[in-house]
Amino acid sequence: MSITSDQLNFLVYRYLQESGFLHSAFTFGYESFVHKSNINGSTVPPGTLISFIQKGLQYLELEANLNEAGEVSIGEYTPLSSQDMLTRDTPELKSIVKTQRDQVEKEKVKDKERQREEERQRERDFQKESRAREREPLERKADNGIKPMDEDKEYAASNHNGGSKSHMPGNYALIPESQVTTLTGHTSEVFICAWSPASSLLASGSGDSTARIWCVPGGDVGTVKEAITLKHFNRNKDNKQEKSKDVTTLDWNGDGTLLATGSYDGQARIWSRDGKLRNTLNQHKGPIFSLKWNKKGDCLLSGSVDRTAIIWDAKTGEVKQQFEHHSAPTLDVDWRNNVSFATCSTDEMIYVCKLGETTPLRQFQGHKDEVNAIKWDPSGNLLASCSDDKTAKIWSLKQETCIHDLVGHSKEIYTIKWSPTGPNSNNPNGSLTLASASFDSTIKLWDVDVGECFHSLTKHTEPVYSVAFSPNGEFLASGSFDKCVHIW
């Protein structure tokens, strides 16, 4: 379709007339020879020029919203201002659309955190009201010589052939401050910490734009030397340093010589154990929420709000492959072996991928809400996942559907951990167990052979955000918003 200059001049002439600019219309019509055109004015509807311009702007807006496949995804259409469409070309408009979509995704993440904080506050209010009601029956049970964990033991024994797995201690004791080493230095929340697998170094990541490496003395409590501070700063346009926001994730490589950190600025960084920056990894376009080394230590895997996962060459810092299967932020990643891994997302999907392959080896669909975490068992045969749909699931590459649907929590499940026991672990004679931690303030232990819960640990009074097994698998530590760490 095209329009001639005579037709365009007539539309401008009519627009000036309709708008009341009669002198301007007369002058323009005289100079453009409108009166000599063969256009029948009675067949041109009023406001035609405005209608043409509006439709042209709508076309520009639609073109800017098209993806690489020439389609507009449902729910992703981004309106543009008329000012932008009149003053910018199509590539610039596409860039504006991408920037706005990235901002929307960031706002969704922030909204999710606000919702969770509101949920935590409701939980705190509920707990205050329910403690008084719970205290009286608990005291009656104590008078009868029965403690809450004793009940769990009896339940486990009645359901697991004599209670072979019910070894969790029922009694607990408060650890005195004299036996606690406190590490001070961070000036904001500490989001994550990880022990080096080869030494007594502890790494921590915080909202103060730093990670720190602490040398923690073994044995009795002692004085901790000043931590090595890993500053996460970017350079602005004036070449001045500015903070890069939260350090959201970190992970040591297998021999403890390198530490990888991920930040809310979308950058991953690789540091030596003495705090020297080795590489800055810049490909992601959104916050990094998960970062893992493979066992060999030659590759680093990251997952980001930009919906992608990336495998990096640990030596050069270059991208080996970027995976773009998810349609929403990638929340967690986990290696299966040195070349294959799994990812999960707020799009409710789980993908198993392999370096060098462009399509997933397997995709798992079954959760009804955001998938918060995924973990391979020590053998790499079973994949566990947990979700805001209040369930955990166990998957196998041998089938598309989950082999166990673990139902029991009453609120969102935030994280899961496998015990370091069973085949291909350091404790091969122990039975394999999965722990799940939830916003319902409980931790549940699951028998993965039958898909049943054999312990529900209920001492926490607020959402549980972290769990970890001891190296021998005999103890479990849990951390909660109730400001307590429990060892079970």
Explain what the structure shows:
The strands form eight sheets. This protein has a four-stranded antiparallel beta sheet with strand order 1-2-3-4, with no helix packed on it. Strands 7-8-9-10 form a four-stranded antiparallel beta sheet, with no helix packed on it. The protein has a four-stranded antiparallel beta sheet with strand order 11-12-13-14, with no helix packed on it. The chain is of the alpha+beta class. The protein is 23% helix and 31% strand.
Helix-strand blueprint:
Blueprint lengths: L4 H14 L3 H10 L16 H18 L16 H6 L2 H54 L4 H12 L30 E6 L5 E6 L3 E6 L12 E4 L1 E3 L5 E3 L3 E6 L5 E6 L4 E5 L4 E5 L6 E6 L5 E6 L4 E5 L5 E5 L6 E6 L4 E6 L3 E6 L7 E4 L5 E6 L5 E6 L3 E6 L7 E4 L5 E6 L14 E6 L4 E5 L4 E6 L6 E6 L6 E5 L4 E3 L1
Antiparallel strand pairs: 1-2, 2-3, 3-4, 5-6, 7-8, 8-9, 9-10, 11-12, 12-13, 13-14, 15-16, 16-17, 17-18, 19-20, 20-21, 21-22, 23-24, 24-25, 25-26, 27-28, 28-29
Features:
488 residues; four-stranded antiparallel sheet; alpha+beta
How many DSSP H or I helices? 6
Shape: elongated
Low-confidence stretches: 134-170
Structural class: alpha+beta
Q: Please give the order of strands in the largest beta sheet.
A: 1-2-3-4
Mean pLDDT: 83
Helix content: 10-25%
- Tell me about the biggest sheet? 4 strands, antiparallel
Strand percentage lies at 25-35%
Which radius of gyration do the C-alpha atoms yield?
30 Å
Ends distance: 75 Å
DSSP, total strands: 29
